[in-house]
């Protein structure tokens, strides 16, 4: 006998989850208590800057380079942050 497969709602991205959590009254407590790592806020800011650069630049590579320069991190670091925020 086959069990019917239920459709699951699509998972939200890490960025969307952080956006949702920010609306909670106890959001800062989640960071202070160590439940959420504090660097996720930095990642969010970097990701938002990258998204703005994508709108301005024609090439993703240029948006990535601009973001890396702005935050004084490597392009690889920006790429990893982008992947984390999308995932």
UniProtKB/TrEMBL annotation:
Organism for this UniProt entry: Salinimicrobium sediminis
Protein name: Mor transcription activator family protein
């Amino acid at each position: 006998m086959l069990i019917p497969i239920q459709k699951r709602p699509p998972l939200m991205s890490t960025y969307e989850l952080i956006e949702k959590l920010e609306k909670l009254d106890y959001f800062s407590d989640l960071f202070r208590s160590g439940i959420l790592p504090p660097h996720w806020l930095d990642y969010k800011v970097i990701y938002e800057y990258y998204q703005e650069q994508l709108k301005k630049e024609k090439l993703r590579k240029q948006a990535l380079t601009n973001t890396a320069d702005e935050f004084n991190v490597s392009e690889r670091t920006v790429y990893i942050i982008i992947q984390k925020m999308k995932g």
